[in-house]
């Protein structure tokens, strides 16, 4: 099964490009400590050196003389980490709520869906602002907050999957065998409901990375990490002439989100070959 | 009439949700470090504890959380959102002043995204897997992956700094005293880049959905019937396919209303527009919690209103919705 999926996945050029880009970013994140062992936020040289001007600073330096290339490499770590952890949080909350709502139905479903709806009516970036205002902006709180605002869509997806699976024969067989609800939900139904949720996780991850960068741009994320969004916000002050300070980290975000989306789409096409091209 | 009652019922169903949101956010804000009085005292340059106590009593902040919540909800029913200590005005006034810019921005961004998405989606679907489709789909992916604030900044660099065609920010040119048409044109010039910036992400989503739903409808039997009647491609697409393919697009407007409001926070900050999103950001930075709560309330109302309109539009596009159960 895995080999067949892999073959289908590798048939799409877009999916291969996505995978290569993702590997490139992972390589950047992995080599950051080795290529740029110094603290990326420490002063490195004269401020505002243009890219390719000085071989020591391939991508130039920012307003306060910090190496942009070092910040980009270290930023890859934080972007991927924040994106990944926030996605895991969102998907776990989403699966639990969606699974209980879909499996039990009735008033449990009603209440859980009301709460989901409430989260969907409230603009998620606004809720993110409220959460950051209340709990502060360290890397931990920002990541958890992004996870908290992103769970409703995975929850709805899980619920829909559970609704269609909960009365299948294998579940009824399990029920007749006397399996407990928890065993049925997590051991029997969930593995079958998982593929579309995993594919959707790539969307959640792409959005999480964008949300963090937007927060950082507004100077509401953790100021003590080399985040790409922080660098864009910083570059805004010198946008008139040294626009590259903002431009370079933006390209990094774009490439990362693009890679994650392409891989997600490739997985989707490989897992549902019938829907290809949609 | 039926559709009105149907949409009305959905509207009524969203009232408990609205209260759920308000109670949740109200309780959440109780955890915030520092209250409005702290912010005011900081603004005044400090003050003694007695003044702070007096102010807290004045704003009802010395009561228990439950009593404050009941007070707040009771005031909300009368559409009183409280007083913004930072702006020195009732929150309703502050929000109403900021609302037009956001509504204008959202409407223009949405129209841009919807119509461009529709046109590009139709072109891509008509030329599926040929170069126009590949080009449009790739562009869509790139727009989707682009952080909107970054696109806004780069647009400012190109169009405002290098080409000097468009203003870099603001809602209108306050150095010019004008009215009527010239003022409208001036505001339109200022809103062009922000609308484009906010619209691009949604354009990417719309064109994808439009393409997918066109492809689906193009394979249905009634399209084959229309073709075999001898209709030319244009009228098949415009009269038969488009109307059916539009349904998911309209649904999407309702689903994306909240995201769009969220996006306007960032876009309004980039282009320094005096809108609701920027107000939200400012009230977070200034710890103006009353205003923040008011914005949450108004945003939720706005999303509910958009969904109400979407329900109505949906029924016009698909008569089966009204005749069905």
Write a concise synopsis of the structure shown:
The complex is a heterodimer of chains A (278) and B (325). Chain A is mainly alpha-helical and 278 residues long.
Tell me what you see in this structure.
The complex is a heterodimer of chains A (278) and B (325). Chain A has 278 residues and is mainly alpha-helical. In chain A, 73% of the residues lie in helices and 0% in strands. Chain A is elongated. Chain A has a single domain, classed as Orthogonal Bundle (MetI-like fold), CATH 1.10.3720.10. Chain A starts with a helix and ends in a 7-residue tail after the last helix. Chain A is built from 11 helices and no strands. Chain B is mostly helical. Helices cover 78% and strands 1% of the residues of chain B. In chain B, strands 1-2 form a two-stranded antiparallel ribbon. In chain B, strand 1 and strand 2 form a beta hairpin. In chain B, helix 1 packs antiparallel against helix 12, helix 5 packs antiparallel against helix 6 and helix 6 crosses helix 8. The mean pLDDT of chain B is 83. Classes of the chains: A mainly alpha (278), B mainly alpha (325). The interface between A and B is large, with 47 and 55 residues.
């Amino acid at each position: 099964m895995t080999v067949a999926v892999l073959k289908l996945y590798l048939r799409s050029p877009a999916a291969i490009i996505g995978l290569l880009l993702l590997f490139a970013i992972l390589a950047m994140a992995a080599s950051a400590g080795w290529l740029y062992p110094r603290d990326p936020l420490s002063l490195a040289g004269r401020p505002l050196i243009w890219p390719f001007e000085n071989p020591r600073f391939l991508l130039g330096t920012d307003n306060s003389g910090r190496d942009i290339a070092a910040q980009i490499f270290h930023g890859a770590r934080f972007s991927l980490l924040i994106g990944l952890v926030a996605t895991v949080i969102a998907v776990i909350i989403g699966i639990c709520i969606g699974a209980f709502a879909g499996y039990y139905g009735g008033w449990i479903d009603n209440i859980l869906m009301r709460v989901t709806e409430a989260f969907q009516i409230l603009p998620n970036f606004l809720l993110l602002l409220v959460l950051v205002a209340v709990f502060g902006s360290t890397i931990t709180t920002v990541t958890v907050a992004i996870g908290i605002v992103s769970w409703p869509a995975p929850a709805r997806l899980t619920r829909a999957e559970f609704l269609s699976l909960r009365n299948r024969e294998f579940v009824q067989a399990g029920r007749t065998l006397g399996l407990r609800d928890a065993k049925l939900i997590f051991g029997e139904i969930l593995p079958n409901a998982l593929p579309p949720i995993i594919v959707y996780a790539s969307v959640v991850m792409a959005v999480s990375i964008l949300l963090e960068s937007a927060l950082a741009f507004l100077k509401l994320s953790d100021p003590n990490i080399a985040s790409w969004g922080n660098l864009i916000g910083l570059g805004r002050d010198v946008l008139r002439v040294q626009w590259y300070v903002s431009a370079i980290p933006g390209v990094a975000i774009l490439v990362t989100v693009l890679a994650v989306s392409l891989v997600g789409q490739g997985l989707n096409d490989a897992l549902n070959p019938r829907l290809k091209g949609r | 009439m039926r559709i009105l009652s149907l949409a009305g019922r959905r509207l009524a169903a969203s009232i408990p949700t609205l209260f759920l949101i308000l109670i949740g956010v109200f309780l959440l804000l109780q955890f915030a470090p520092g209250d409005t009085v702290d912010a005011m005292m900081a603004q005044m340059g400090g003050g003694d504890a007695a003044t702070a106590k007096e102010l807290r009593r004045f704003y009802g902040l010395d009561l228990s959380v439950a009593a404050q919540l009941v007070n707040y909800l009771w005031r909300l029913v009368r559409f009183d959102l409280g007083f913004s200590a930072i702006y020195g005005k009732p929150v309703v006034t502050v929000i109403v002043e900021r609302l037009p810019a956001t509504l204008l921005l959202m409407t223009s961004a949405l129209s841009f995204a919807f119509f461009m998405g529709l046109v590009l989606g139709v072109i891509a679907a008509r030329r599926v897997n040929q170069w126009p489709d590949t080009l449009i789909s790739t562009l869509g992916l790139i727009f989707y992956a682009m952080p909107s604030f970054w696109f806004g900044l780069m647009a400012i660099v190109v169009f405002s700094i290098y080409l000097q065609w468009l203003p870099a920010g603001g809602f209108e040119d306050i150095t010019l005293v004008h009215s009527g048409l010239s003022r409208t044109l001036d505001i339109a010039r200022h809103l062009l880049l922000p609308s484009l910036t906010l619209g691009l992400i949604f354009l990417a989503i719309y064109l994808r959905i439009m393409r997918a739903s066109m492809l689906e409808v193009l394979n249905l039997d009634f399209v084959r019937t229309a073709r075999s009647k001898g209709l030319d491609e244009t009228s098949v697409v415009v009269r038969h396919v488009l109307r059916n393919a539009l349904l998911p697009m309209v649904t999407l407007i309702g689903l994306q209303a909240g995201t769009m409001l969220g996006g306007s926070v960032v876009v309004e900050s980039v282009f320094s527009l005096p809108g609701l999103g920027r107000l939200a950001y400012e009230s977070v930075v200034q710890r103006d919690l009353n205003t923040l709560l008011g914005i949450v309330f108004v945003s939720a109302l706005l999303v509910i209103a958009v969904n109400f309109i979407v329900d109505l539009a949906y029924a016009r596009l698909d008569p089966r919705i009204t005749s069905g159960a």
